[in-house]
Design a protein that fits this description.
F-box_dom; five-stranded antiparallel β-sheet; SCF_F-box_component; Neuraminidase; F-box domain-containing protein; globular; F-box-assoc_interact_dom; alpha+beta
């Protein structure tokens, strides 16, 4: 076929094909393989994929399967587990219970195993083409007095995935600022020390989250004002292309809020902040939106959500409905206008849910290694597999305890510690 078609026509056709097909087509010929693995083709294919139908990736921890479960859903009226695409999960037994998902960008997820203890691995994973990249960890990571915050996203100008790591040293019950910063670029395959100006801010430990908007990673952070140990909340951001830090002011009602009660999110492409009445056991929250990016005067309170009997805000659908969890461990879609919710039939432990935008891409096709779930061999009998599975569950519970009890314990211990630290 390529012998009779100009290369530019062939490329135009290929950009409309799904990544799984393109991975197989690499075997057709050397020329096809060269096209599909070229940075130029991967870039334009990813751009094409990002314009396709809106999809959402959902992660939760299943006690029955003793594992994280991932699925991709079309963001339409049929958003449910029955209509979802199940994703093969290759990291079973790599971490305690489940990973923190730092973020999702251009079909690649950034995973960090720090939610239930010390961080030992950072993994970039493309579930569509089953490729992974494990990043090296620093030697100082083993020290108990070091706290890391990560940012992850795609650098559009340089066509590269990047991870920024912010390292805080703890001393005398506080975190020293400014923190040390390193940047990892997939193209170079190594960490390098950031030598630019770093704001003297701190991102909340354990509860931190990020969102990427307009090419920058955003976190809710706080700074010590030096007056009776008062802190002021702000938005701290890192531009992935220019590699510079910046700050944005929050609306006045959020500046003095306990920072662990704030969470940065994206709502219809705009920067937004969720304000909880309490981080643990919240009964209500308000959604604040920056209508015009960069204009601090454009912050406005968008709407109020009654969380009685519900969990934390996970994200938003294209129609504006809120995605959150319920006490029955299910994922809900909440219509804030009508004030009613719909059970989506997707279940997992309450605090293990993650939702984020997703598109299929060829990211990590060249840089990553194969990431596949272990499949039992023909010699493994069903009874042996069942026995091993039951034994594994029992061993995990003996070793770690129940996942929901661990979630509750970690949430409350960190809430009490940070509340005391920030209110002192």
């Amino acid at each position: 076929m390529s012998d009779y078609l100009p290369e530019e026509v062939l490329i135009k056709i290929m950009t409309k094909l799904p990544p799984k097909s393109l991975v197989r087509f690499r075997c057709v010929s050397k020329s096809w393989n060269s096209i599909i693995t070229s940075p130029f083709f991967i870039s334009i294919h990813t751009q094409q994929a990002s314009l396709s139908e809106s999809q959402i990736i959902v992660r939760r921890y299943s006690k029955a399967q003793n594992s994280e479960v991932y699925s991709v859903h079309h963001d339409d009226k049929h958003f449910s587990d029955e209509k979802s695409i199940q994703i093969e999960y290759p990291f079973r037994d790599y971490t305690r219970f489940y990973y923190r998902i730092v973020g999702s960008s251009n079909g690649v997820l950034c995973l960090l195993d720090d939610l239930f203890g010390q961080a030992y691995s950072i993994v970039l994973w493309n579930p569509t083409i089953k490729r992974k990249l494990t990043l090296p960890m620093p030697e100082e990571n083993v020290a108990s007095h070091v706290m890391f915050v990560l940012g992850f996203g795609f650098d559009v100008q340089n066509n590269d995935y990047k991870v920024v790591r912010i390292c805080y040293i703890q001393e005398d019950y506080e975190y020293l600022v400014p923190p040390a910063v390193e940047v990892y670029a997939v193209k170079t395959g190594s960490w390098r020390t950031f030598n630019g100006e770093v704001p003297k801010n701190c991102v909340v430990e354990y509860f931190w989250s990020q969102v990427v908007i307009y090419g920058s990673v955003h976190w809710v952070a706080y700074r010590n004002m030096g007056k009776h140990d008062k802190v002021e909340n702000i938005i701290m951001l890192f531009n992935l292309s220019q590699e510079v830090f910046d700050e944005m002011e929050l609306p006045n009602p959020l500046k003095d809020e306990l920072p662990i009660n704030l969470n940065v999110v994206s709502l219809e492409g705009s920067l937004a902040v969720v304000q909880y009445d309490e981080r643990v056991g919240s009964k209500s929250c308000c959604i604040w939106v920056m209508k015009k990016y960069g204009d601090v005067e454009s912050w406005s309170k968008r709407y109020y959500v009654d969380l009685e009997g519900l969990g934390l805000i996970l994200g938003f659908r294209a129609n504006g409905d809120v995605l959150l969890t319920a006490r029955n461990r299910g994922l809900l879609s909440y219509d804030h206008i009508m004030g009613n919710s719909k059970d989506l039939g997707i279940f997992g432990t309450k605090d293990s849910f993650y939702v984020g935008p997703y598109c299929e891409s060829l990211g990590l096709l060249v840089e990553g290694k194969e990431a596949r779930e272990r499949v039992p061999s023909d010699s493994d009998s069903d009874s042996e597999c069942e026995s091993e599975c039951e034994s594994s569950v029992e061993d995990d519970e003996d070793r770690f305890g129940d996942v929901e009890k661990s979630e509750f314990r970690m949430q409350h211990s960190m809430f009490q510690y940070l509340s005391a630290l920030l209110k002192r």
